[in-house]
């Protein structure tokens, strides 16, 4: 896998960025829990996670950052309790699923464009 030091160097750079983001979210969720989650997450990310985890209709306004972090950590195995905050590992595991849920929301969610059965992205021109 790491036959050259440059490959290890590149891998380490990516891991550092991912670790920074996870730890930053943990810290931000604890220090600014009432912040709007749309500051950190895109609308498709928070909407998809909210619908999958809570199985309720979307709220009129985005959830707080603390609520969103708890929902994401739930995807990573966190059990919601009043006295504990999610850790870096459950948040990291949950964030891995957020990307897939966001892409699915963009493709199939209520805001996706509706296609008729006869319409296609590809056109075939015969001459």
TrEMBL record:
Q: Which InterPro entries match?
A: RNaseH-like_sf (IPR012337), Tn5p-like (IPR047768), Transposase_Tn5 (IPR003201), Transposase_Tn5-like_C (IPR014737)
Which Pfam families does the record associate with it? Dimer_Tnp_Tn5
Span of domain Transposase Tn5 dimerisation: 17-99
Database matches in PANTHER family: TRANSPOSASE (PTHR37319), TRANSPOSASE TN5 DIMERISATION DOMAIN-CONTAINING PROTEIN (PTHR37319:SF1)
Protein name per its UniProtKB record: Transposase Tn5 dimerisation domain-containing protein
